[in-house]
């Protein structure tokens, strides 16, 4: 029999859940390890900038309890990447504390490796001055101020950090920001299986059981890699992989379905072939991995101010018939009113972002049919200012201005906006912005990712 | 004229990271995929106009292994910015659903 390695990805993202019975059944399949991605930038920059986990503590703990007890029951490593959603140090420690709590509650003892991914800023500045931080396309302009001033900057680790942690005797690896695929490629690549197959499989496995024909609910996937191919099998007996479902997964959230950059190389799927092994198992061959200079991607988030909001609806047909002209007048009216309170120096120191639901709220300037308006328009106004107090005050003023803004055909005092919630304007807290889409060249793969160990 | 919704099995947009938006138009079989590719309805100029970006910034992939056409463009504003209208980028395909395509000859 040719040699092989098999592993399990129980779900697409830690905290979203999965069926415990399918997971337990998969533990009997001679697994080399269990991996799980916990990260995403989908929640926006506050996850990283403001230390906000992507899922609740209860949801993360539920999934982690099953994963930790399951992995320890068969004595295989458990690899969790991008802990807490952003993989920032605060989020990573948040997950670490949950794991320690589970270990205590379950009476388990094991060795944890914690791999941090927030490099010291002086290291990043040195790289920048050496010309080793390069923009991806598209990327915001940066300067040294961005590198020193961002609230958090993480570097997405590659496979090597996981391998080093295993060499250090880790049973459970809790990693900061990581490429999703590195979690799953690390061990197979280290064991010498073909890099193209390992990385391609990892890119599919990081989404758990998502590459199935119809995903009714999040479940896991089992991957088996040999020297010639990899195969994918959903853990749920009622789910199927087809050659098309697996091939199509290369489209999901990727910019290019054929080529994907990873630390140390690029996946090339142009020669990949997909074949059915059975009605639910698919075999893949031909995937390539081309080594390249070792770079890791940087993500950063900066505080840009504080927000408040107003939400209301307009139903008056007389306003809806002339909405654009009425609304332009209204925006001027709001600006005048804000300056009347704060003086002309407030100009340029605040923003109001308007979303007009029922008109162009979803697509904004891209909406090709902004004049198709139905029974009503939902108006969302989000203010941004340097302090929460000012953002809140401007939201309150803006709400009042909309309410009473004149309509040429009507005489007397108007009430133009239906507010569905009392009070009718609220604080939204800190606003953050993604400030980096860059890669940094490393001299060695572990340069930005220190590992420490502790016994649970 | 049939519309894209009559031929595709899924039309979706999603973030490809916080700085890019990607559109996938997926077809049920090779015949319908090849038909729409050959029709030229989904081309760089049309996509540049639809997404309001410069044509040089449009990346278009005909992805035969998945019977799919993929288009990736820069986001107009970064995901989660105050001016952003769609944090996950999940609803930016809407009007494409009703784009007309030539009928498939039986």
How would you describe this protein?
The complex is a heterodimer of chains A (456) and B (106). With 456 residues, chain A is of the alpha+beta class. Helices cover 30% and strands 25% of the residues of chain A. A 10-stranded mixed sheet of chain A has the order 12-13-9-8-1-2-3-7-4-20, with helices on both faces. In chain A, strands 5, 6, 15, 16, 17, 18 and 19 form a 7-stranded antiparallel sheet that branches. In chain A, strands 10-11-14 form a 3-stranded antiparallel sheet. Chain A starts with a strand and ends with a strand. Chain B is 21% helix and 24% strand. The model of chain B has no long low-confidence stretch (mean pLDDT 96). Chain B contains 3 helices and 4 strands, in the order H-E-E-H-H-E-E. The two termini of chain B are 15 Å apart. In chain B, strand 3 (59-63) and strand 4 form a beta hairpin. The radius of gyration of chain B is 14 Å and the shape is elongated. Classes of the chains: A alpha+beta (456), B alpha+beta (106). At the A-B interface, helix 10, strand 15, strand 16 and strand 18 of A face strand 2, strand 3 and strand 4 of B.
End-to-end C-alpha gap of chain A = 38 Å
Separate helix tally of chain B: 3
- The spatial strand order of the largest sheet of chain A comes to 12-13-9-8-1-2-3-7-4-20
Give the low-pLDDT segments of chain B. none
Range of helix content of chain B: 10-25%
Radius of gyration of chain B: 14 Å
Portion of residues within helices of chain A:
25-40%
Query: Which class do the helix and strand fractions of chain A yield?
Result: alpha+beta
Rg of chain A computed from alpha carbons, rounded to a whole number of angstroms:
26 Å
Could you give a quick summary of the protein structure above?
Chain A is an alpha+beta fold and 456 residues long.
């Amino acid at each position: 029999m040719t040699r092989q390695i098999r592993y399990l990805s129980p779900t697409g993202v830690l905290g979203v859940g999965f069926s415990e019975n399918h997971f337990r059944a998969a533990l009997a399949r001679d697994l080399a390890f269990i991996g799980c991605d916990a990260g995403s930038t989908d929640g926006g920059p506050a996850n990283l900038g403001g230390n906000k986990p992507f899922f609740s503590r209860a949801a993360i703990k539920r999934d982690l309890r099953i994963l930790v007890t399951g992995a320890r029951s068969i004595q295989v490593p458990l690899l969790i990447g991008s802990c807490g959603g952003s993989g920032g140090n605060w989020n990573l420690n948040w997950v670490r504390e949950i794991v320690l709590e589970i270990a205590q509650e379950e009476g388990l003892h094991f060795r944890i490796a914690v791999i941090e991914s927030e490099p010291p800023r002086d290291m990043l500045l040195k790289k920048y001055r050496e010309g080793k931080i390069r923009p991806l396309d598209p990327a915001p302009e940066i300067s040294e101020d961005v590198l020193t001033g961002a609230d958090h900057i993480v570097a997405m680790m590659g496979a090597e950090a996981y391998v080093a942690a295993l060499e250090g005797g880790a049973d459970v690896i809790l990693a900061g920001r990581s490429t999703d695929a590195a979690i799953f490629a690390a061990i197979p690549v280290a064991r010498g299986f073909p890099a193209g197959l390992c990385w391609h499989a990892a890119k599919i496995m990081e989404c758990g059981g998502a590459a199935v024909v119809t995903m009714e609910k999040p479940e896991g996937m089992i991957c088996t890699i040999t020297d010639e191919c990899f195969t994918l099998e959903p853990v749920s007996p009622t789910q199927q992989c087809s050659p098309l479902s697996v091939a199509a997964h290369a489209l999901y959230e990727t910019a290019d379905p054929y080529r994907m950059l990873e630390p140390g190389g690029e996946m090339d799927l142009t020669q990949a072939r997909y074949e059915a092994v059975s009605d639910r198992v698919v075999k893949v061959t031909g995937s390539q991995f081309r080594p390249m200079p070792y770079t890791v991607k940087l993500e950063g988030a900066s505080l840009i101010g504080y927000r408040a909001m107003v939400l209301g609806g307009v139903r008056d047909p007389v306003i809806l018939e002339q909405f654009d002209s009425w609304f332009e007048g209204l925006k001027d009216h709001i600006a005048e009113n804000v300056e009347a309170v704060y003086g002309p120096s407030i100009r340029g120191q605040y923003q109001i972002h308007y979303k007009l639901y029922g008109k162009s709220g979803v697509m904004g300037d891209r909406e090709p049919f902004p004049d198709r308006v139905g029974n009503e328009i939902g108006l969302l106004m989000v203010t941004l200012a340097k302090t929460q107090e000012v953002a809140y005050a401007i939201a309150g003023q803006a709400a009042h201005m909309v309410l009473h803004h004149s309509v040429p055909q009507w005489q007397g005092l108007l009430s133009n906006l239906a507010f569905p919630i009392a009070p009718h304007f609220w604080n939204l807290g800190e606003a953050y912005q993604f400030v980096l889409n860059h890669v940094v060249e490393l001299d060695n793969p572990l340069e930005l990712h220190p590992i420490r160990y502790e016994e649970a | 004229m049939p519309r894209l919704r009559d031929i595709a099995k899924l039309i979706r947009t999603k973030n490809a990271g916080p700085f890019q938006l990607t559109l996938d138009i997926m077809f049920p079989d090779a015949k319908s995929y090849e038909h729409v590719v050959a029709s030229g309805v989904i081309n760089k100029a049309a996509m540049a106009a639809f997404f309001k970006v410069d044509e040089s910034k449009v990346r278009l992939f005909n992805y035969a292994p998945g019977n799919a056409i993929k288009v990736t463009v820069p986001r107009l504003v970064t995901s989660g910015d105050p001016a952003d209208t769609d944090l996950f980028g999940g609803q930016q395909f809407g009007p494409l659903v009703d784009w007309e395509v030539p009928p498939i000859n039986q």
